[in-house]
Design brief:
alpha/beta; three-stranded antiparallel beta sheet; globular; 488 residues; 19% strand; ten-stranded mixed beta sheet; 15 helices
């Protein structure tokens, strides 16, 4: 199926022939749907926290940070803003007579009517556009704001009463200062598109100079080795005009290696476009501390038990089994060695995931999923991973009450302070089959197991309900007009 030339191309890309052939086989046969058994709900997989409890947990978290914890924030920021500005691209691509009609209809009528409410309005006016088409062109074109090709992280999201304008990437620095500081220090890591690191550095430098804290900023790109091959519709390896294999980006699941390279005790994970305006940050930050406290408390308990098991404490095994039963609702198989089961079950990366009530947002949600070993675990599952043609699965899906806002607190080191190899905890069968057109060629491809889906499938997981104020995504430019993104 693959040639010697393919093998040479793969070496340059950093991929092995064996891995590529395996991925082509997976694409050809597709992926089995997730074995969802029931939705995770309040009292059955999702922890509900009262306001008083939240305040106490936030204070616990602050106290633990004062002990010198090494905290980082991981921000997937590789995505371009092109999808965010889709209505503007459609407007600009329309015929002149059609543009007049579109300008009078939603969403463009609101875009033009509230243009001054966008944080980038001042920058746009400096170009002195003369017409609506020119205004849109200057938003998108390289001769203007270049938002048609720039990463979403470099788009001006918020403005402040003193005239300050902040991009999404800058707002993540403000968030890090609010809940990631330990001893006045923190670390923020952005995954960025190839070639865009200088632009990020230039954008963030002025704000970093003004901060009262020491925040280290680092960058990485999605490795080419994580790109995945594609098949033609007749099941053959897809090739370009020169005969080389066609590869597609592997999706955000490809970033699990980037996350694993961060040398920190704990890491918050949050999407680039889900970021708070400074005026609501104090309320939002409390809930980051809440999930952090849950994670630190549980991690301390697990590490203590495992160390005692290591030292030969027989009582620790029973405590471990009780913890596993109470917290994760799992029991050792009847014929299992209890000590080995306890160690294997608990000696894994830990994540605490904030969950918001589902108000109609598209995306993944919290479910109890049965693994191949018959043990149920909490997982974030996308609708694309479910067989919604099955009435029982559809009923489970419709019974879901919460939504995944990508609000994660992760403990990445074992009880001895050694970083886990996160690749060991990926479920390779939890990928997605995709259908794309590449240079006019229809291909079937795949996305790697999602960063917070299959890439973390074998982690220890708990869910905590967080208020909707913590979820402020910007999927389209019009979302920037929502009250949570406005200065008042």
């Amino acid at each position: 199926m693959l040639t010697k030339q393919d093998e040479q191309d793969l070496i340059k890309r950093g991929k092995s022939l064996e891995e590529t052939e395996k991925q082509l086989e997976m694409i050809a046969r597709g992926f089995a749907p997730a074995a969802v058994r029931r939705p995770a709900t309040i009292g059955d997989g999702i922890i509900k926290v009262s306001d008083d409890e939240a305040k106490a947990l936030a204070e616990q978290y602050d106290a633990q940070l004062a002990n010198g914890l090494n905290v980082a924030k991981f921000v997937p920021a590789s995505g371009a803003a092109s999808r965010m500005f889709k209505p503007l691209h459609q407007f600009l691509g329309a015929a002149p007579e059609e543009q007049g009609k579109l300008a009078a209809e939603e969403p463009m009528s609101t875009f033009f009517g509230r243009l001054d409410d966008f944080a980038f309005a001042g920058q746009l006016k400096s170009f002195a556009p003369q017409s609506k088409p020119e205004t849109v062109s200057l938003v998108l074109a390289d001769s203007g704001l270049a938002y048609g090709t720039y990463p979403k992280g470099l788009v001006a999201f918020h403005k402040y009463p003193d005239g300050t304008i902040r991009t999404a990437a800058e707002e993540h620095l403000a968030e890090a200062e609010a809940y990631c500081l330990a001893g006045g220090k923190s670390h923020v890591h952005y995954t960025v598109p190839v070639g865009m690191e200088p632009a990020f550095r230039k954008t963030l430098a002025p704000m970093l100079a003004k901060l009262n804290s020491d925040i280290e900023v680092t960058y990485s790109v999605q490795p080419p080795a994580t790109d995945v091959p594609a098949l033609t519709l007749d099941g053959k390896p897809a090739r370009d005009k020169e005969g080389h294999l066609i590869f597609r980006p592997g999706g955000h699941g490809a970033l699990i290696g980037n996350l694993g390279n961060i040398d920190a005790d704990v890491v918050f994970v949050k999407n680039i476009d889900n970021v708070a305006h400074g005026r609501i940050l104090p309320d939002s930050a409390i809930w980051k501390k809440v999930i952090g406290a849950h994670g630190l408390n549980l991690k301390a308990q697990i590490d203590n038990i495992l160390r005692r098991i290591d030292s030969g404490d027989a009582k620790a095994v029973d405590e471990a089994l009780q913890l596993i039963d109470k917290t994760f609702k799992a029991q050792a198989p009847a014929n299992a060695d209890k000590r080995e089961f306890a160690i294997k079950f608990l000696d894994r990366p830990l994540r605490v995931c904030g969950m918001v009530k589902n108000e109609g947002e598209l995306g993944g949600g919290p479910f109890w999923v049965e693994g191949k070993d018959g043990i149920l675990s909490l997982q974030i599952v996308e609708s694309a991973q479910m067989n919604l043609d099955d009435p029982k699965v559809k009923e489970i899906f419709n019974g879901s009450t919460h939504f995944n806002p990508v609000d994660l607190f992760c403990c990445l080191k074992d009880r001895n302070g050694k970083r886990y190899n996160l690749a060991d905890f990926v479920d390779p069968e939890a990928g997605f089959q995709t259908h794309k057109s590449v240079n006019g060629i229809d291909v079937t491809g795949m996305e790697l197991p999602g960063l917070w889906n299959g890439a973390m499938a074998k982690w220890l997981t708990i869910f905590v309900e967080v208020p909707v104020i913590t979820f402020t995504p910007v999927k389209t430019v019009m979302d920037l007009l929502r009250p949570v993104h406005q200065p008042k």
